[in-house]
Amino acid sequence: MEGLITNYYEVASVILFGIGFAMLLLHNNLIKKIIGMNIMDTAVFLFFIAKGYIEGREAPIIVNGYKGVEGYINPIPTSLMLTGIVVAVSTTAFALALTIKINEAYGTIELDEIIKMMKER
């Protein structure tokens, strides 16, 4: 139980990931699936940023003299998550554009109805 209290960012990210995964699996609406995917992305970003943070250290910006390697946080996890956010936004935009085209073609964004229409063709 003590681990859950001290690692609350990690616990929150696992819960968020579960919520997003459940939305992805349980809903037939394409917009809800995209929202679930975005919640999962956010959970992964939160997890990696929480793992990259070290209590008592500063961002690697030298202001009042160099404090040594042990005085700063590693910037690589944060920069990788920034890149991941850009990829997630691009993926979301592409998925929404595809959803618009699917809605124009089938008149719905419910997967069950789309599959039924595809089988009838």
UniProtKB/TrEMBL annotation:
Pfam family, one: Oxidored_q2
Annotated localization: Membrane
Mode of membrane association: Multi-pass membrane protein
Keyword terms: Membrane, Transmembrane, Transmembrane helix
Transmembrane segments: 6-27, 34-54, 80-100
Top-rank taxon, per record: Bacteria
Entry similarity comment: Belongs to the CPA3 antiporters (TC 2.A.63) subunit C family.
Protein's name in the database: Cation:proton antiporter subunit C
